[in-house]
Amino acid sequence: MSDRQISLSRTVAAPAGQIFDLLADPARHPELDGSGSVRGSLSQGPRRLSLGARFGMRMRLGLPYTIQNTVVEFEEGRLIAWRHFSGHRWRWQLTDLGDGRTEVTETFDWSTAGSPRAIELLRFPGRNRRGIEATLDRLATRFG
After folding, report:
1. Can you tell me the distance from the alpha carbon of 122 to that of 116, in angstroms, rounded to the nearest whole number?
2. Which residues of the chain fall below pLDDT 50?
3. Average per-residue pLDDT in the chain?
4. Among 3, 15, 83, 140, which residue is least crowded by beta carbons within 10 Å?
5. pTM for this one?
C-alpha cells in the first residue's frame, strides 16, 4: 500500500452483493456518504456502474459544484473504484465473510493524482479519513 492511501475496513451485516448494488448505483451514493459532500447524481449517467462508465455527481464542499468520475476498477460484487478529474481514486473492496457478513474496505488513493502534494496541502487526506469513518458507520447502521 502506498503512503498516499487511506484505507479503513468494517464488517457489515449484509451480503456482499447487496452492498455492491448500493455502490454500483450512483443515484444512491448520498445514502452512504458520511462526509456530507455528496448531494446527488446527475441525470446523464448510467443507472448501474461498470468498467469505463462515466458518471457525474452534485457535490458541496463549502460551495456547490459538480464532478465527473470514471470507473477504473470493477469486479462484480467485489471491487469498484472511480477516479476524479485530478486522478485520485475512491476504491471499495468487499470480502464475503460468510453468514451474510461482508468486510467492506474503502480507500482514498491520491497516489494516482496529477498533483498529490496539492491534495496534501489542502488537507484532504485527514478530512477524507473522517469521511470514510462516517461512511462505514452509516453503512454498518444501514444494514445492522
Report:
1. 10
2. none
3. 94
4. 3
5. 0.93
